[in-house]
Amino acid sequence: MVRVTGKGTKERVVPTGRTALRFLRGYIAGVRPGCLKDSSQTALFLNARGDRFSYRSLQHCIRRLRQKHGLEQHVTAHTFKRSCTTELIRSGANVYHVKELLGHESLCTLKPPTPN
Q1: Three-state DSSP class for 19?
Q2: Which of 115, 112, 45 is nearest to 82 (CA)?
Q3: Which of 30, 32, 34, 76 has its CB surrounded by the most CB atoms within 10 Å?
Q4: Measuring CA to CA, which residue among 21, 22, 53, 18 is closest to residue 35?
Q5: Against a cut of 0.90, is the pTM above it?
């Protein structure tokens, strides 16, 4: 389990697999210290300047990768979130658990997956 702070500093605990935890530990031990410029920085993921890795930075990375690989579709971080949510629900995950995992207040914000 990993404790996540989301929008509005809302905290939730999310299940995390062994592989993800292994990579996360490797990042914390091997990468983050090299990015850290200010020891008071509490953000887990940092940019090259040692600041919090922002949503805007993530969007920029996605845009660069999309261009590099010649993808014409409009892809955003939200696209990945929606895809993962859809696959969880299609695979039989409980929608209440998915809602909690995403930190949503209501089930109304979860749209049912579209049929194949």
Answers
A1: helix
A2: 112
A3: 32
A4: 53
A5: no
